[in-house]
Design a protein that fits this description.
- The chain has about 140 residues and is an alpha/beta fold.
- Helices cover about 45% and strands about 25% of the residues.
- The protein is built from four helices and five strands, in the order βββαβαβαα.
- A five-stranded mixed beta sheet has the order 3-2-1-4-5, with helices on both faces.
- α2 links the parallel β4 and β5.
- The longest helix has 23 residues.
- The radius of gyration is 14 Å and the shape is globular.
- The relative contact order is 0.23.
Length: about 140
Protein backbone atom coordinates (compact mmCIF):
# COMPACT_ATOMS: atom_id res chain seq x y z
CA UNK A 1 0.00 0.00 0.00
CA UNK A 2 1.20 3.49 -0.83
CA UNK A 3 1.17 6.73 1.11
CA UNK A 4 0.10 9.99 -0.52
CA UNK A 5 1.90 13.19 0.51
CA UNK A 6 0.32 16.63 0.12
CA UNK A 7 1.44 20.24 0.50
CA UNK A 8 -1.65 22.48 0.45
CA UNK A 9 -1.38 26.12 -0.54
CA UNK A 10 -3.89 28.84 -1.42
CA UNK A 11 -3.99 27.80 -5.06
CA UNK A 12 -1.63 24.85 -5.44
CA UNK A 13 -1.45 21.33 -4.11
CA UNK A 14 1.95 19.67 -4.14
CA UNK A 15 1.54 15.91 -4.56
CA UNK A 16 3.97 13.09 -3.77
CA UNK A 17 3.58 9.32 -3.56
CA UNK A 18 5.52 6.62 -1.80
CA UNK A 19 6.65 3.40 -3.37
CA UNK A 20 4.65 0.28 -2.50
CA UNK A 21 7.08 -0.57 0.31
CA UNK A 22 6.65 2.83 1.93
CA UNK A 23 10.35 3.62 1.84
CA UNK A 24 10.82 6.31 -0.80
CA UNK A 25 8.78 9.35 -1.74
CA UNK A 26 8.68 10.75 -5.26
CA UNK A 27 7.03 13.88 -6.58
CA UNK A 28 3.95 13.46 -8.72
CA UNK A 29 2.85 16.97 -9.67
CA UNK A 30 1.72 20.39 -8.56
CA UNK A 31 -2.03 20.67 -9.03
CA UNK A 32 -3.28 24.23 -9.52
CA UNK A 33 -6.75 25.46 -8.59
CA UNK A 34 -8.47 28.82 -8.18
CA UNK A 35 -7.52 30.65 -5.00
CA UNK A 36 -9.17 29.03 -1.95
CA UNK A 37 -11.27 26.62 -4.08
CA UNK A 38 -10.26 23.64 -1.98
CA UNK A 39 -13.18 21.63 -3.34
CA UNK A 40 -11.26 21.31 -6.61
CA UNK A 41 -8.19 20.10 -4.74
CA UNK A 42 -10.35 17.54 -2.94
CA UNK A 43 -11.82 16.32 -6.25
CA UNK A 44 -8.30 15.94 -7.60
CA UNK A 45 -7.28 13.82 -4.58
CA UNK A 46 -10.33 11.60 -5.00
CA UNK A 47 -9.34 11.04 -8.65
CA UNK A 48 -5.78 10.13 -7.65
CA UNK A 49 -7.06 7.67 -5.06
CA UNK A 50 -9.17 5.90 -7.70
CA UNK A 51 -5.95 5.08 -9.59
CA UNK A 52 -3.62 4.30 -6.69
CA UNK A 53 -3.70 1.83 -3.80
CA UNK A 54 -3.26 4.34 -0.93
CA UNK A 55 -3.60 3.44 2.74
CA UNK A 56 -2.58 6.75 4.33
CA UNK A 57 -2.48 10.41 3.36
CA UNK A 58 0.10 12.75 4.88
CA UNK A 59 -0.80 16.44 4.75
CA UNK A 60 1.70 19.13 5.65
CA UNK A 61 0.68 21.17 8.71
CA UNK A 62 2.10 24.69 8.48
CA UNK A 63 3.24 25.65 11.97
CA UNK A 64 4.93 28.85 13.02
CA UNK A 65 8.56 28.66 14.12
CA UNK A 66 7.45 28.98 17.78
CA UNK A 67 5.26 25.85 17.30
CA UNK A 68 1.99 27.81 17.32
CA UNK A 69 -0.60 27.41 14.61
CA UNK A 70 -2.17 30.15 12.55
CA UNK A 71 -4.85 30.48 9.89
CA UNK A 72 -3.03 28.26 7.35
CA UNK A 73 -2.83 25.44 9.90
CA UNK A 74 -6.57 25.73 10.57
CA UNK A 75 -7.27 25.55 6.83
CA UNK A 76 -5.12 22.41 6.62
CA UNK A 77 -6.94 20.83 9.57
CA UNK A 78 -10.34 21.50 7.97
CA UNK A 79 -9.09 20.17 4.63
CA UNK A 80 -7.75 17.01 6.29
CA UNK A 81 -11.16 16.40 7.86
CA UNK A 82 -12.91 16.80 4.49
CA UNK A 83 -10.44 14.44 2.82
CA UNK A 84 -11.02 11.78 5.49
CA UNK A 85 -14.80 12.19 5.26
CA UNK A 86 -14.74 11.98 1.45
CA UNK A 87 -12.32 9.09 1.07
CA UNK A 88 -12.41 7.07 4.29
CA UNK A 89 -8.61 7.11 4.26
CA UNK A 90 -6.85 8.42 7.39
CA UNK A 91 -5.01 11.73 7.06
CA UNK A 92 -1.91 12.33 9.15
CA UNK A 93 -1.01 15.98 9.72
CA UNK A 94 2.77 16.40 9.52
CA UNK A 95 4.85 19.40 10.56
CA UNK A 96 5.98 21.07 7.35
CA UNK A 97 8.07 23.91 8.77
CA UNK A 98 10.76 25.04 6.33
CA UNK A 99 9.96 22.44 3.66
CA UNK A 100 9.13 25.05 1.02
CA UNK A 101 12.35 26.91 1.79
CA UNK A 102 14.27 23.63 1.67
CA UNK A 103 12.62 22.69 -1.65
CA UNK A 104 13.43 26.09 -3.12
CA UNK A 105 17.05 25.75 -1.99
CA UNK A 106 17.35 22.30 -3.63
CA UNK A 107 16.02 23.72 -6.91
CA UNK A 108 18.34 26.74 -6.75
CA UNK A 109 21.33 24.52 -6.00
CA UNK A 110 20.30 22.37 -8.95
CA UNK A 111 20.53 25.41 -11.20
CA UNK A 112 16.83 25.74 -11.95
CA UNK A 113 15.81 29.19 -13.15
CA UNK A 114 13.41 31.22 -11.00
CA UNK A 115 10.54 31.07 -13.52
CA UNK A 116 10.72 27.27 -13.58
CA UNK A 117 11.09 26.77 -9.82
CA UNK A 118 7.53 27.90 -9.12
CA UNK A 119 6.17 24.94 -11.12
CA UNK A 120 8.15 22.43 -9.05
CA UNK A 121 8.57 23.80 -5.52
CA UNK A 122 5.23 22.56 -4.12
CA UNK A 123 5.70 19.07 -5.58
CA UNK A 124 9.17 18.91 -4.04
CA UNK A 125 7.86 20.24 -0.70
CA UNK A 126 5.23 17.47 -0.69
CA UNK A 127 8.00 14.97 -1.40
CA UNK A 128 10.05 16.27 1.53
CA UNK A 129 7.02 16.14 3.85
CA UNK A 130 6.24 12.58 2.80
CA UNK A 131 9.86 11.40 3.02
CA UNK A 132 10.14 12.82 6.53
CA UNK A 133 7.01 10.93 7.53
CA UNK A 134 8.22 7.68 5.94
CA UNK A 135 11.59 7.93 7.69
CA UNK A 136 9.87 8.42 11.04
CA UNK A 137 8.04 5.12 10.54
CA UNK A 138 11.33 3.27 10.63
Amino acid sequence: MKTLGLDLGDKTLGVAMSDALGMMAHGVETFTFKTAHYKHALEYIVDVLKKENVSTIVLGLPKNMDNTEGERAEISRRFAKKVEESTGIPVVLWDERLTTMQADRVLIDGGMRRENRKKHVDKLAATLILQSYLESKG
